[in-house]
Amino acid sequence: MRVIVAPDKFKGSLSAPDAARHLAAGLRSANPALEIEQVPLGDGGEGTVDAAVAAGFTRVTATVEGPTGSPVAADFAVQGPRAVIEMAAASGLHVLDGGTLVPLTASSFGTGQLINAALDKGCTDIVLGVGGSACTDGGAGMLAALGAKLRDARGRPIAPGGAALASVVRIALETMDPRLAGTRFTLASDVDNPLLGPDGTAAVFGPQKGATGDQVEELEDALERYFRVLSNELGLAAVSASDHPGSGAAGGVGYAALAVLNAVRCPGIEVVMELTNLAQRLRAADLVITGEGSLDHQSLRGKAPVGVAAAAQQAGVRVLAVCGRTTLTAAELHSAGFARTHALTELEPDTSRSMSHAAELLERIGATIGTELATAPAPANQEEISLV
Fold first, then answer.
1. Which end of the chain has less Cβ packing within 10 Å, N or C?
2. At what angle do helices 16-30 and 358-375 cross, to 10 degrees?
């Protein structure tokens, strides 16, 4: 039997490659005859570079400015002319100095520096995975790193961060890196929020980045000014991009990518499945095991496990889910395409212990699945396999 192990990360516990490795170890311990292929995944956010590297890309490290300007060592992945960049690696919450939230001044400048590093490697096809960002600057920092000049009424460069956009009066794009014109950008994002308004990036995601109610209003006003100035520069392209699904992703970096870099937005899991060639691999599989740290209603909006289940269903392959915990009902899990779901909390109800012992628990669950596969009668076809 050929089994594909394709989990996303177990946030706070294990990376996707580590989760896949421990599940595979458990499977092999109970059923050495299994043919197991590990395909760790991501959904466009953290873990996307790991998934690309596991699929054969080369990991590259660049030192860039973090959200507050401090140096950060950020990885991206390269294969031929293609690069995969995680915004969170350069401009994410997890690289903030001391973890201190700075919603008004955090910048996406380091993300632009990563794009520059990819261009320096000769890449002309760049996947920009967004998620977990610390900033709400509309991608202004990213554009500045790529050569754009944002000026105030006295012709001075504006300060980093979203709040400073309130003083911008001119955005010069003609000074941007000319290599961008020959580069294709894919915005890997599951977020469909617009840039502005009650469903916009400041209102919805600002509080997650530490913004108070007053600061959300300040960021909203600053982003609206930024939008108007950029619209004066670009015209209709910038106007329409502000309402495009995903323009509110990553504090508005999605807007800059769509309006200025002419990016095409795709759901993160679809991008990662294409990078890993998962659809083709599924054709030769008998079973796929996927999962993530928490299977919940957010997962149903396009997270990796549900994307894997949909692809497996098209290929006629049965899917099992493994997670740290789940808040979904049995009916919701079945409707999502999972024949059966194993949660670490079934073995260790204490959440903190479940997270700290995730590797061991995943191996135990893998062994349980391996034993079931070893004792199940050999099916005549895929429809007869039953592990429930």
1. C
2. 40
